[in-house]
Each structure stands twice: as C-alpha cells, then as structure tokens.
Amino acid sequence: MTVVETEAVPTELRPEIAGRNPWALAGRRLRRNRIALAALGLLLLIIVMCAAAPLYAHYVAHVNPFLPNLNGHTVVNGKVVPVMEQGGGALKLGETPIGPTWDPHHYFLGADGLGRDVAALLLYGGRSSLLVGIGSAVICCVVATVIALIAGFFGGITDSILSRVMDIIWAFPVYLLAISLATELLTHSNGFQVGPLHVSASSLWVPTLLIAFIFLPYVYRPIRGQVLSVINREFVEAAIAEGAGNLRLIFSEILPNVVSTVIVLLPLMIATTILTESALSFLSLGVQPPNVSWGSIISDGQDLLYTRPWVSMAPGIMIVLTVLAMNVLGDGVRDALDPRAKLRVEG
Amino acid sequence: MVTFIVRRSLWAALVIFVITVLVFLLFFKTPGVDPARAIAGRNSNPQILAEIRAQFGLNKPLWVQYGLMMKSLFISRNLVSYSNQGVLVVPEIAQAAPATLSLVFGAALIWVVMAIVMGLAAALLRGTVYDPLLMILALIGVSTPVFWLGQVANLISQSALHNTFLFSWVPPLGYTPLQQNPAKWFAGLVIPWICLSILYIGFYARVLRGNLLEIQSEDYVRTARAKGLTERRVWTRHTLRNSMITFVSLFGLDFGALVAGGALLTEVVFGIHGVGYLTYQAATQLDLPTIMATVVYGAIFIVLANTLVDIGYAWLDPRVRMG
Questions:
Q1: In this complex, do B15 and A327 lie within 8 Å of one another by their Cβ atoms?
Q2: Given A176, A188, A305, which is nearest B33 (Cβ)?
Q3: Is the interface score ipTM higher than 0.95?
C-alpha cells in the first residue's frame, strides 16, 4: 500500500538510463488503477473519521458514549425529550431508545439499549475494529513471514517441525479455534501476566493476538512456498559464493523477493481479520466492554432490531464498506505487484 | 494409491490425537486457572467442584486426566454441562445435528449452482461490462458479515415487509424438524439458506472465473479448438471440467467446516438450534464441557473431511499421490 508508493526511484541514477525499480513500476500501476485509488480514499476517510471519534463525541455530540444514559434527556427540534422513550405498541410496555434524528448534535443515529449515542459509539467502535483488524493482520503477516523464512531457509527437520505445527493450527476449524481460545482467555477475568507486562482481560491485545494466531498458517503456506522457489536461484548461489552469512542471505537476498507476496496478502488479510473480529465480537467473545467494536454494537442491536434497526444497520454498513474497500485495494495491489497474474487472467 | 491412503490416514490420526491433547491442555492446564472452577462455570459450589475433581481425576497424573477426559467424551459420553443443570453434552450435540445439516445442505446446493452460473457467466462475458459488474457483486458478497446480512433479512422479512405479499409466507424465526412439517421446514430455511450461501457464492464465483480464464490459455484448450470442437464443447468438456478440480476440493473443506459448527453465526441470527448455536450458547455461558465437546467433535469431523478430500483429489490427479 503506502510502502509501495514511498519506495522511490534511486535518484543517483541518471534519468535517461535509469531502469525503473519494480516498486516504482508497481506504484505507477496502482496509481493508474482508479477503482483501487477510490477504495484507498474511502479507507483513509473511514480511518480519519474513526480516529476523530473523541473529537466528535466531545465537541459535536457533547456526550460520553461509554456512560449509560437511561434517565437522561436530550433536545430535539427545540423540544426536550427523554433518551429512553416509553415503549410504543398497544401495551406501552418497556422502553425504547430514542431513534435517529437529523441533528448531528443530538443522537444522530439514535441511542442504543443503554441510552448511549450510537453515532459516537460507531466511531469509537470503528477504532477498535480497525486497530484489532489491522493490528492482527500485520502481526500475523510479520510472524508468519519470519517462521516461513526460517522454515524455508534451514529446511530439513526445522522445516518439517514448523510446517507440521502450522498444519495442526490449520486443521482446527477457524471459528471453533477462535471460540475455544477466546472462551479460555475470558475465564481469566483478572487478566494475564506476560513477563513484566500485565494485560487486562478486556484489553484489545487479547482479540488482536488471538486472531493473528489463528490465521498464521494461511499466510505461512504461500510465503514458505515463495521462499522455497527463491532459495535455489542463481543470485542466492552467487551470494553464497561471495561468502554471505545466513543473516545476509535471509534478509538481503531472500526477504526482498518474498516481500511482494506479503504485501499482496496484507490487505486481503486485513479484510479477513476485520470480518473475524466483528464475528467474534458479535458472539461477545471478541472486543470486551468497556471497549466497543462494530461487531459488539451489532450484537447489542440484535434486541432492538425491529424497533431501532439503525443500531445494528449502521455498524454493518461500516463493516461492509471497510472490508469491500480493503478487498478492492487488495486486488489492485495484487495486479500492480504481479502484472503477469493479471495478464494471464485478464488477457 | 494404497500407500497414499495409509499415509494420509496415519497423518489424520496423528492430527486428531494432537488436537485432543491441545484441547485438553488448553482447558485443563493453563496456568493460573483452577480447571474445576472453570468447568463448573458460574454456579460453582464445593460439592460440584468435588464432583468435577473426581470425574476428571484432577489429583491424578496428567496422562490419567487426559485418558479420563477422552473416556467421558467418546466412550461413556457422560460429560455433563454444569452451567446447564446437568445436561449430557454429547447426546445434545447429536440432537442438534439435523438442524445444522439441513441448513448447510440447502445452502451448499444454492451456492454451488449460483457460483457456477456466476463464474461461468463472468468468464464468458469477459470484455463486456457484465464481467466487472458480476465480480463487484461477488466481492460485495465476500465482504458482508453473514450475521449482519441475516439481521437485514430478518428486518425485511419479519418486520418491514412482513405484511406484504412478498414475505407474508415467512414463518417466525426458528427451526422446524423436517419429519414434523416439511413445508414449514422449507419455508423457515429459505432465507437462512440464501444468507449463508451468499459469501460462498461470491468466493467461489471469483475463484472459478480466475480458474476458467487461466485454463482457457492452456495448450490443450488450443488443441481442442484446433481440432474443430464447438466453442460450447470446449467450455464444458475442457475448461469447466478442469476448473472443477479446485472447486470440488475447496467445496469439501468449506462444507466440512460448516457442518462442524462453522455455520454458527447464521444459526445464531436465525435462531436455528443446531451445533453452532449450541457452541454459541456454551461460549456465552463459559460452559467449558460443551465447548470442549463441540470443538473436539467438530475438529475430528473436519480432519476426516479433509482426509477424504485429499484422497479424492489424489484419486483424480495422480501427481498428488507421488508428492
């Protein structure tokens, strides 16, 4: 993504004979792909909006979206109305949160079952969803690449052991593995002590690391294949002949040749991890209170579906837009970095 | 072929063994948690704790504990749910299976047919505006969380448009067994089927289209054209048939994963009390025995499904056997 664009053509080369560096070529191909650029723009917009969540909550909506507001009042069209309205229907039972208003200052998307401002929650939820989704995909890709480099480079018994471990993680059904790990972790209500660090049970790190872990083999497998296909090439032999050590071979000969595979996988992994996070949070096994995420708002909205559908519709639309943009961008990055695949498929 | 089957089955047995060991370690041996307390769930009292310690032999050596857990899962099948007033876990899973199977079979039928139609149409219409249009549709399908799609469907069919002719036939949420009322079984499952299948339609259509176009540039397709076969015959007998290899092996894996509990999001949002719903309920109550059982049974089912897919694949494609 941005990495692709910041890698510039080496300026010390005279322009008339400068061979273009493959990253620059890929960056140019990506810049010409209007659909992928539109997706990137949409993603940046969503990220900026979610990053500005505290600003919206504080300066525009004047609410603290984490405090229940069951007895509060708000002003709509100059009239003071309770946030939790007396229930409708024939029996007038129960309470229904206030619905969407056309006033961005007061419950723009209505309130949830605890009388909290859904518009503000939506932005805060986006922060958790994006942090967990992007964080876990990045961690997953980095760790899987390191393992794949070690396995592919050293081969033999190291490779067998690492590959079998990955096969076993792969053999677990994704959601069952996530659910059993999450349930196990949630029984530690006092948090965890990892060396000197204390991680509380409601920390975003728990779902992030969990999701990164379950998707390791999905990244490991293609990258190990790539390492194996690179390792016997002539330039590696040349480096060995020059007396290069293992570290130099791994980091300056092999890694640069597998990095494009990682970059192609990353946006597609982010799309997958955001969906997984939302599913886990929907099952109340992902992001834990007091944090909210798009998935957990949808879960809260389940009970209000027929009376206040916006509580779950709004975060769902955000998930679809984000994941769709991520997938489109991922396709664009793949086409930009691997034009042969595009030629082969699209003629 | 026999060597391949033996090798693959031994690997499957090893994976199943390792999975059970890992689940055992995860639930019984994570540091800092008293397993008896965790298994007892939220209503632990000294009597239940003592009962659990005796049943799982928590004061005995590690391998005895493992053996006792396997015994209660597979042989005596008397694993009890403590957060759910002594319900026997394994028979409960067996009871929930028909609902899951009904849901997954129907959805699979829809997704296979629709994905082939969409993928084939996109590949045949390449160069027209319909190909990117179909692929954007497929991408939207892949990007939509199924539980939210289910909510949208419920909102429309149960509330917003329920009183119009379009959706007045939709029964209230829930599952009606087939033998009880086939018409109601069908009516109640149509919308869950469609929702569950949409993700897979999108995914399979994309894979199939890519595969079809890749195969179109193969030499044997050129040969088939050169020897004067009709375009229809080239597509059906050479292109489509070969791209079915990937399609079928993916299908085996996804189908297995869905039956083993992967359909739980759909089951939860439509109130279908299948295996996935059971897992979900257990997870919300932190009911470890039930989760343990569904995870172990689900994982075993998936390992077996994967093994069958691999054997089938090797039977179709001799190159795999040698690998």
A1: no
A2: A188
A3: no
